[in-house]
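>> received
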Amino acid sequence: MARETVLYDVADRICTITLNRPDRLNAWTRQMHLDLKDAMFTAGADAEVRAIILTGAGRGFCAGADMGGLQAIGAGAATDRSSKAQDGLPGGSTLAEFKMNYSYFPSIPKFIIAAINGPCAGLGLVIPLYADLRFAAESAVFTTAFAQRGLIAEHGVSWLLPRLIGLPAAMDLLCSARKFRAPEALALGLVSRVIADDKLLAETRAYATLLANTVSPRSVAVMKRQLWEAEFQTLAEATVQANHEMDLSFQTADFKEGVAHFLEKRAARFTGR
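>> returned
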């Protein structure tokens, strides 16, 4: 499909997906939802892609839902609150929890890094929480925003945010809707790195290159699935799953290559098989 609101680029086995409404700080629309989902599933199904970077064009990441859309809803327009499970991709999580309208990132069998390059609000904050890692520019400013719009904790954020930063901190950020900056986001554990604005994409890409060139893409896909699904498992269930996955790993070409490149003291040539 032709994507109207996101840019899509693949180079050196890294896919960069860019939210592309810079004149509106990449404010979220239904078309952007459809475009991003299509781009993510396309990258997830591409054997040449080893990692995905999600960022925003211009000076913002995503300012939240477009106000024009919110005004229309306030005037009585229909909304799409579908909770119907949708098909995922081979290798990604098959849990129904990760097939919802916005919670599908864990069903993508590639490592997803959100490079948060500026204002990140409301739904624009929820989206990168479903990424596997988040890096933020020093100038990035965050807010949940929902309470200031008369809304509630949308799209599973009431489940996800406390798991990332703890219940009291999640309660604070959601109920106060206060703005907070990148250093606080780092201290809370909401992001993993704070990087100078002009180096954000370069450092994010360097990390993605590490994933693309030095580790097994099959291992990454399986471990990503294990970690997300462990939120719904007991220790015993996670161990049983791990034992099964280990047996499968021993039968793969990537396992043989993992041993061979170490013994031969050369760069790895993983194929994902």
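>> Residues 70-75, 81-85 have pLDDT under 50 and may be disordered.
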